[in-house]
Amino acid sequence: MSKQEPKRLPLSSLKEMIDADFKTQGVSPYLSPDFAIVCGSNTYLEIRNIFELSVPYRVDDFRFIAFHKGDVDVTANLLKYHVSDNAVGFMGNGGIIQMDRISSDVVMSGIVVKEDYLRRAMGGRLPATFNGRLHNFYLQVTDRECDIVGRMVLTLRVMVEDGQCGHEARASMIAAIVNYIAELYEHYGADVPATQSRQQDVFNRFIALVNEHCFVHHTLDFYADKLCITQRYLGSLVKQASGTTAKEWIDRALVNEAKVALKHSDVTIAQLAENLSFPNPAFFSKFFKRMTGVTPSQYKHQ
Fold first, then answer.
1. Residue finishing a domain among 190, 214, 242
2. Are 250 and 150 in the same domain?
3. Which residues contact 9 (CB under 8 A, 6 or more apart)?
4. Are 267 and 4 spatial neighbours (Cβ–Cβ below 8 Å)?
5. Which domain holds residue 286?
6. Domain count of the chain?
7. Considering the entire predicted model, what is its pTM?
8. Residue among 260, 292, 289 nearest 276 (CA)
9. 179: how many CB neighbours lie within 10 A of its CB?
10. Are 24 and 46 in contact (CB under 8 A)?
11. 151, part of any domain
């Protein structure tokens, strides 16, 4: 049986942002089938109307965001982040994001871009930072750098309102925003792998593999083999880096995938158990209740 994709919600895809007539307090957002623009807007009420806190959502397309004011606690692809003033963020296509807390004064700017459109805008070649190398990041930058991102996004917003501004100019501006954020990452984030500890490096690679393969592979041997180390050594490094066992991270990823499907699709419990490679629905239900305290059906309807 093919894996059933969860339904997207309004802030999760361009089409549903358009269908929901998404609005913010501030400069009105621009929505098109290829990209969307949100400019220096207080989006607290809109986000709270769309996202239920502490519920995971699978997102579509690529997102590049500048946080000008306020702060949020977010879980992105299993890892927790506290994002505050003057931060720049990226979320790749297909990631899972969960809003845990949003301050009422949050102000952000950003663009949402379909992957195929972004590749065309970049001449067929994405910066290495966004070409599958990273699934997400949040960087603390200077006030000036964050302001530059915001001004570039606002310029793009003005350009799309200008009837004389054609496709090439808009695509070039999107490419400029993406290139600038890639440069910020290279400046603030790219040196981290070279300086981090052995256990942190292995942990980061392990989490990336878990996010990609947890649908099928639930046991440590697969991930140890991928990382060319023993299961015992992998378990030890992951525990040192995170304080949590490797098996617990795999289980958390499975629960996240299950929660997304239960909340945002019509998949049955039996179908979901098969999609997530459990031997039977009863085994899946027992696992889900052990991890969450409720059955899959209770979670879906609570």
1. 190
2. no
3. 16, 50, 51, 57, 264
4. yes
5. 195-301
6. 2
7. 0.74
8. 260
9. 15
10. yes
11. yes
